[in-house]
Amino acid sequence: MGSVCRRDWQKKYVGRSRVALKPRTTEQVSELLRYCSSRRLAVVPQGGNTGLVGGSVPVFDEVVISTAAMNRVLHFDEVSGALVAQAGCVLQSLDEFVGQRGFMMPLDLGAKGSCQIGGNVSTGAGGLRLLRYGSLHGSVLGLEVVLPEPLVPTPAPLPRAGAGAGDGLGSGVGGKGSGGDGRVLDLLRTLRKDNTGYDLKQLFIGAEGTLGIVTAVAIQCAPRPASVQVALLACPSFAAVTATLAAARRRLGEVLSAVEFLDTAASTLTTAHLDGVRNPLVAETAGGGVNGGGWGEATGGGGEVTRGSAWSPASSGASGGPFYVLVETHGSDEEHDRQKMERFLEAVMSDGCVADGTLASSEAQAAAIWRLREGIAEALARRGAVYKYDVSLPTSGMYDMVEALRGRLAAGGFGPEAGVAVVGYGHIGDGNLHLNVSAPRYDDVLLGLIEPYVYEFVASRNGSISAEHGIGLMKAGALSYSKGPVAVQLMRAIKAAVDPGGIMNPYKLLPRI
Ligand code: FAD
Ligand code: MLT
Ligand code: ZN
């Protein structure tokens, strides 16, 4: 087995598995789970392996079951837009497939070229347009899931993460089991309405492979918009960002499809590390570099209004940033949507919420703006070590978290001079902040300053320690910051009922007892 299946996308977590299996059919998955249940072999389901919390890779020598070869579209209803696909279909391929039929996938994310629909469902991924198209808890119509065997005699205790190398369940502890059936839970319906008791499919959305293996997904696609408008705006303060969001909701209403934000640190880092990516609101330096190319607290730049844009602010020479807001609309009438967008832009300009901006006048310009936003994760990964936090917080005070951490780290000797950048960006329209600390290398003293501080901060504001990336291995020990004891107890009871042998993705999601 190559390191591809053993190591996560960020190259932060690595296990020691020697076995990665790639079934093609549900029956093969069922056979594999039956075998693993009977031998009490621990299993890690793996999709595109783009998860950001260490959920998709083994901790020890668990058996990796990859859905990469389960990549067939099973059915598409061109009237309703209901798509049924095997779990291993890559999100972008599905979007292209339904795109040829006038539809779009209801979710989109920067990892679309590699992540799989089964992985998206299992993480409960949010993405760039949740604001408009809702979460997977609404758009998933049905699932097919292979469950582990219900009964395993005399389960042996699980080894604890960190208890020593190569002592995982994969070595076959527990002896021979009862020989179950590798149960297939068939919930693969495409109905919009099905009010027949417990909505079991919801349990598997965001279960992170701890309850079973999703083998097929039925999902509601949306009509592909005939008209798309994308603007990038520079706001002078975070209060101006939230006022711009409120204005976008009010003035763009039913056509609004995304409101994303990034701070200057995120913009600077991304343009410095990704070839060909630039912030159109920041002037290039005379030497041809972009944004100074430095780390730490970059300046906003020259604030030039983008050429070729259909809209520009009344005043020229306004400075870019320190915050950038991406606003997108999806509609059916180009002229109507353009007018709406222009009125919105005029309003936020005259209110002083927006100091500078550009409205894409071609698909290429729109894609370039999106590339700046979507490229942040990749740029961070290229720069070095990344401590990634993905939190939900009340929107108005959300950026306090970034500023507080920046101050705390600087005071502890981990400021810009130490090569540490604290970066804030995310799905502001959904109250979701991505708080990232980029450093030259992983450092336990630095980590000690970040955790549990970040989790305590989030809990003190009634936020969530995971808005969309899930819990995985990274946050299993921190679950109680967002879930009370009764909720955790119920989660454990569900896990025990569905996976009594505890073979499904051990050490992930639930805290160790
Ligand atoms: P994997 O990483 O392979 O697995 C993720 C989890 O699901 C693991 O716990 C795994 O065990 C489990 N799993 C996978 N497949 C199955 C299955 N068939 N059955 C049961 N369990 C399974 N997330 C967002 O929410 N929003 C974003 O905007 C976003 N952007 C991203 C951008 C980049 C560049 C990257 C690298 C990641 C991003 N993510 C984002 C993280 C996101 O969770 C994943 O990209 C995606 O949802 C995971 O899909 P995957 O197929 O790669 O799953
Ligand atoms: C994003 O919104 O870009 C993704 O969730 C990835 C990340 O948080 O870096
Ligand atoms: Zn995100």
From TrEMBL:
One of its GO terms (molecular function) is oxidoreductase activity. Keywords: FAD, Flavoprotein, Oxidoreductase. Gene3D superfamilies: 3.30.465.10, 3.30.70.2190, 3.30.70.2740, Uridine Diphospho-n-acetylenolpyruvylglucosamine Reductase, domain 2, Vanillyl-alcohol Oxidase, Chain A, domain 4. Residues 13-224 form the FAD-binding PCMH-type domain. Its cofactor is FAD. InterPro entries: FAD-bd_oxidored_4_C, FAD-bd_PCMH, FAD-bd_PCMH-like_sf, FAD-bd_PCMH_sub1, FAD-bd_PCMH_sub2, FAD-linked_Oxase-like_C, FAD-oxidored/transferase_4, Oxid_FAD_bind_N. Belongs to the FAD-binding oxidoreductase/transferase type 4 family. This is FAD-binding PCMH-type domain-containing protein. It comes from Gonium pectorale. The lineage of its organism: Eukaryota, Viridiplantae, Chlorophyta, core chlorophytes, Chlorophyceae.
